[in-house]
């Protein structure tokens, strides 16, 4: 296949687009792969569309390899199924909602658990039909608050979403493992540097869940990795490694001290000359379980740790929380700002939520529940009782992960997410299947997504250099870029012959045959567009030689006659 | 490629869906190709998606063959460009409109002239870049008042739309001719019985325009064909073959007659004992040019013809019309109901719009503008003057078309539409291109569409029989359906060998390997699903023979050993 740049609908830009901040966005626009149509909404120009389709096909091959069957759901969906699962409301402003001419509520699908569950219910009724794995490559819509970075976070985007349906939990485990392995093969084939992160399942519901994150300093997601690569997790999913509980026997009794104007951890550590991790930060927090009233809770953290609201949110889900405000303090006069302690909270019936490090037998300096007073030697599970351990403290580089490994912080871009949903959706739609004993059973479900258009941005982000893009051969729009940079008619003729020979050998070729464009511009365009190989018919062509440039690698002068065999090998 | 029916996500139905009226809808649902998600919105199940993709690829091949380049625009679009061309409003309730979280107006694209014109403006600036032909295969949205017949008229549907941009009118003619020929190749390859109809260009604007209509009694569009196939046209586009004007010299003077209670054409022809086509129907009609007031007009038709409102509408466009109502009669007291005549209208300054048959020298019996009086011998262009000829009369089978050919009426389904748009859109967006002389010029544009998902419905509609679907080989989900209908283990084993051999020979095979399904059900499913060939390993397998069934054709018993070579030949 040969595409001639003299014909190609393309204009490369020398300047970065004004709204672009990250390299992938700048380069994909400058190289004429994508073009903005509206905020967070992009058009795919010919080169971009070819790359997108090739990524789709890599994903398709690996999905077919695990026995998943492709179908295609509409993007325009009725409200009712999403009402049934509560997501019509839960999605908030993130959902594009609209009304049709008959005033019926509709939405643009952000994800399709509802539709797949309903279709399986429609078509299947016996355990013999299971397991089944289904997928689609489809255009999705989310009204992102901050669409950014071109196709990295768009409002209209292409996604591969698959869904597994199994009669047993073991079946779900298998489907999950099969998808996990397929995703590894996909991202390995694409040459992406990624980590598989333990994740919380959030609004999707369900149990096990992992995220595939591309390592990128421009990523929006922070995550945590073991320095030895043995472990990675979303910050929300990091489990604090708590010390073993100790006996409280023989520990000294607590003592109350006058500590005037000592309302911060810093003041406290300075006053008692101890490290901050021996003090206990005691925060008043309001928590609301779904459908209930706000209720006062205490959150206990080692004094050297800040509260990470996202971690506490994930830990408390589905309950929500907020820090106590003036009115809450006013309603609970036993709360003495700057001097709150676990004893006073517990004495007033306030549930205590604590960092896992606050185990039995640990000793703390904390507030004495009186103005200008602190208490030392307060022992967990002797002087106060933790009602529930929560992951609320910030995670820091140098923290210890599972097995004692040292953790570092990293940033990443979400490529994919796999979920064990369980029966949340199949129960919502009452998907009843007759089991081997003729009894009704509800199948269990998994949901697995890859952001196809985002993968393209990630490839641009991870593999570019200062000169331009650099595609892996498998998804490059063309494998070889041939440029004639010699005004000699024989060179152009030889170029024609070369691209014909490459085409005959099954190589996809982008041919820069533009007659009035300078060699310098042709070289710059070749680097910007980023095909894996470029062949330049330049000055040395007079000596029967051409340049073979490996994008991001070496440049060799090779005999013209050998270039086809060098490339096809 | 082998797909096993024991695994395939499919359930065939014996009953027609309750909401289905036409065969394509019934069969595509019963055979598990599509499934309804909302009114006019369908999901593509595995078999349906395979067929859809194959149709897309036939279209792609022919578009690439005429040098069109594929790109892909979003479906979610900003309001502004459609505001610029007026289509934000013109589309009325047919447009899906929505607001994003920032309250910006957006729409779901019904067609993309605006976006393509804007993108060409963005990328190109010199005549050297032209001509350019661009296309996309994309999901479109129209909020149809009456979505019907499954994917025949859906609200979310797949369309191929292409756009040509040329610097000269001759270039546009070439682009139009290239698309016309490509469309013929596409529909010929698909084996569709179709007609190319002259069309009016309607809301799209522009000049030349033709529709590709699939001949179908379930079609929504009526059209007119020459009995010899030399001509076809939309009813709106049929041009009346008018007689030559005649001299008015020596014709008798008109005479007024008392005609009490003679307010219909039937009464008039009976009274004067003449054929209806010698009488002149004279109708009071209100016409409004864009931005102006309603104005009274007379419409003159031969008495044997009814008014066809769609034809008059197309003829008057962009003006609109309505029949005069009581208030209009009240405002124009010279209008005498049942006795209106052209003389009285003209005397009162009312413009006369006439059927082309009302040429100079024709003689008519018509109203005398007085109650209970008619006039005979009224001669066109002697006693009254036609201000403008319009196509307002119904078209009938037996009418005469261009070159005197006899016309018949037919029904069809619109498969595609090609338009010479001219500069309507490029002017709206001020697409200025430097021409050979360095002067600014506006390129001229063509727009060409094929309803891909509708083509699938048309194939089902034209090619089915009472037993089921019958796909052309090029777009069938699989070329061969192999069914084991013999409980002998050797038969199943032979079936496995056969599908492996067919697969090795590059044939796509659907393999009915379901162990507990009866031969009868397997035969019925094979017919319903409609692959071009079915191979049945049945009773005769004991004698080394299998049945080779050509869908919709003959069934032969052939030696098992020969079946692969028979199919691949």
TrEMBL record, chains A, B:
GO terms for cellular component: cytosol. It comes from the Bacteria. Its EC number is 6.1.1.15. Its main location: cytoplasm. GO terms for biological process: prolyl-tRNA aminoacylation. It catalyses: tRNA(Pro) + L-proline + ATP = L-prolyl-tRNA(Pro) + AMP + diphosphate. It is an enzyme of class 6 (ligase). Keywords: Aminoacyl-tRNA synthetase, ATP-binding, Cytoplasm, Ligase, Nucleotide-binding, Protein biosynthesis. GO terms for molecular function: aminoacyl-tRNA deacylase activity; ATP binding; proline-tRNA ligase activity. Consists of three domains: the N-terminal catalytic domain, the editing domain and the C-terminal anticodon-binding domain. Catalyzes the attachment of proline to tRNA(Pro) in a two-step reaction: proline is first activated by ATP to form Pro-AMP and then transferred to the acceptor end of tRNA(Pro). As ProRS can inadvertently accommodate and process non-cognate amino acids such as alanine and cysteine, to avoid such errors it has two additional distinct editing activities against alanine. One activity is designated as 'pretransfer' editing and involves the tRNA(Pro)-independent hydrolysis of activated Ala-AMP. This is Proline--tRNA ligase. It comes from Corynebacterium tapiri. The lineage of its organism: Bacteria, Bacillati, Actinomycetota, Actinomycetes, Mycobacteriales. The gene is proS.
């Amino acid at each position: 296949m040969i595409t001639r740049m003299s014909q190609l609908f393309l204009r490369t830009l020398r300047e970065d687009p004004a709204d672009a901040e990250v390299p992938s966005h700048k380069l994909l626009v400058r190289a004429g792969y994508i073009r903005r149509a509206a905020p967070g909404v992009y058009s795919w120009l010919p080169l971009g569309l070819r790359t997108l389709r090739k990524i789709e096909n890599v994903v398709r091959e690996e999905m077919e390899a695990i026995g998943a069957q492709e179908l295609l759901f509409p993007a325009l969906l009725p409200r009712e199924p999403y009402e049934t699962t509560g997501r019509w409301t839960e999605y908030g402003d993130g959902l594009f909602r609209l009304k049709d001419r008959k005033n019926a509520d509709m939405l643009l699908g952000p994800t399709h658990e509802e539709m797949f569950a309903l279709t399986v219910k429609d078509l299947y009724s016996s355990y013999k039909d299971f397991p089944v794995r289904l997928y689609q490559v489809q255009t999705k819509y989310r009204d992102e608050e901050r669409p950014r970075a071109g196709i990295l976070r768009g409002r209209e985007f292409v996604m591969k979403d698959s869904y597994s349906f199994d009669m047993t939990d073991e079946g779900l485990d298998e489907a999950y493992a099969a998808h996990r392995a397929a995703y590894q093969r996909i991202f390995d084939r694409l040459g992406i540097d990624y980590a598989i992160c333990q994740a919380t399942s959030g609004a999707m519901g369900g149990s096990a869940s992992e995220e595939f994150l591309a390592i990128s300093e421009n990523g929006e997601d922070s995550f945590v990795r073991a320095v030895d690569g043995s472990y990675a997790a979303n910050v929300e999913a990091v489990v604090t490694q708590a010390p073993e509980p100790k006996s409280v026997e023989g520990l000294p009794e607590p003592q109350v001290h006058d500590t005037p104007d000592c309302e911060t951890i810093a003041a406290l550590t300075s006053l008692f000359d101890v490290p901050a991790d021996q003090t206990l930060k005691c925060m008043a927090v309001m928590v609301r379980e779904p459908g209930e009233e706000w209720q006062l809770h205490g959150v206990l953290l080692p004094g050297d740790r800040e509260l990470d609201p996202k971690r506490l949110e994930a830990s408390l889900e589905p309950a929500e929380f907020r820090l106590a405000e003036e009115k809450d303090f006013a309603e609970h006069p036993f709360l003495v700002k700057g001097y709150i302690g676990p004893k006073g909270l517990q004495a007033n019936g306030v549930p205590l939520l604590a960092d896992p490090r606050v185990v039995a037998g640990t000793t703390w300096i904390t507030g004495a529940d009186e103005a200008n007073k602190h208490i030392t030697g307060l022992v967990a599970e002797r002087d106060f009782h933790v009602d529930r351990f929560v992951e609320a403290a910030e995670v820091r580089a140098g923290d210890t992960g599972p097995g004692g490994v040292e953790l570092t912080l990293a940033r990443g871009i979400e490529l994919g997410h796999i979920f064990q949903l369980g029966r949340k959706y199949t129960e919502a739609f009452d998907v009843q299947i007759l089991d081997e004993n003729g009894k009704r059973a509800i199948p269990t479900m998994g949901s697995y997504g890859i952001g196809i258009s985002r993968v393209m941005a990630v490839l641009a982000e991870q593999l570019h250099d200062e000169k331009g893009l650099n595609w892996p051969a498998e998804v490059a729009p063309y494998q070889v870029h041939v440029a004639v940079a010699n005004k000699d008619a024989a060179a152009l003729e030889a170029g024609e012959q070369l691209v014909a020979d490459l085409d005959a050998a099954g190589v996809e070729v982008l041919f820069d045959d533009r007659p009035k464009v300078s060699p310098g511009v042709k070289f710059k365009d070749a680097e910007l567009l980023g095909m894996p190989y470029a062949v330049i018919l330049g000055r040395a062509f007079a000596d029967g030689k051409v340049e073979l440039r490996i994008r991001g690698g070496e440049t060799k002068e090779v005999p013209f006659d050998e270039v086809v065999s060098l490339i096809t090998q």
